[in-house]
Amino acid sequence: MISKKRNVNPFVSIIIPTLNRKRDIIKCLHFLRRLEYPKKHMEVIIWDNGSMDGTQAEVNRIFKEMEKDGWKGLNMIQSEENLGGFTSRDELFKRIDTNADYVLNIDDDVFLSSDSLTILMRTLQDHSEAGIIGPRTVYEWKPDETAHGAGFVNLWLGRYGEIDAISLIECDYVIGCCMLIKSEVVSKLKGFDRDYYTSHGEVDFCLRARKKGYKIFYDPGVVVRHNVARGGTKTLERIYYLYRNKLVVIRKNATLLQKVTSLSLYTIFWVPKMIMDSMWFHRGIKLDEWLVMLKAVRHAIINRVGKVDI
């Protein structure tokens, strides 16, 4: 896959969805301002999913300060409803500058190192067949521990795994909280698949990019901090989308034989394992969680996708 001719200072669109994360988004923007890259070749677009904690006022205040730094564009879009992580990102894709060469997709609770963008960009430029790259993500509260590594999917077994690699490695996907994407990939894939709403949309995006001939890279030489709990939050909503979307990825990207094999394994092994994991985590029976897990599996099988009332 041959990409565009290398520009001296390619234009970068930075997109961030947010919801009631005022303290994190303030800190996120603080670190964006420290990026070692010409501000006139960058824009920031934030999609606010109806925050009620004063996020809009704080972002507007910081944007006024950032204007003095010479940023090409600073824009916040206020949504009347919560569109979820990946539907929001898909909306943001539609609003990036038409001259953008790269899209830096980050979460509102991700804090970048000053050289992260330039290093990730250089790797993409050095590998013409590459389309997406992600850094090593560590916990904000424990920066010596990897939170997200290089992602791999076994479509035969329905298994997801990560490798905490020590050098640049090609993989199946990188975590969506921080990924640098060539704009041509966004155009060819026509954005994120809205069926995911939240969770695993980046896995599907990367797998589709691979089908188009692009390679996905994970670079542990670049480290960013993610203000997230180990294993993520355990709300019923998160559990539902986590388990449903794992199966949706398989339904959309696996061959027929792979689907038969992996879905059979889910019924025989993975569903009981999900319940056992829940019992271990809570040290007992949590029926509402079990029912949400079973609902997630059933919805994936019958193709109930998008936003669902839990």
TrEMBL record:
Pfam families: Glycos_transf_2 (PF00535). It comes from the Bacteria. Keywords: Transferase. This is Putative glycosyl transferase. InterPro entries: Glyco_trans_2-like, Nucleotide-diphossugar_trans. Residues 13-188 form the Glycosyltransferase 2-like domain. GO terms for molecular function: transferase activity.
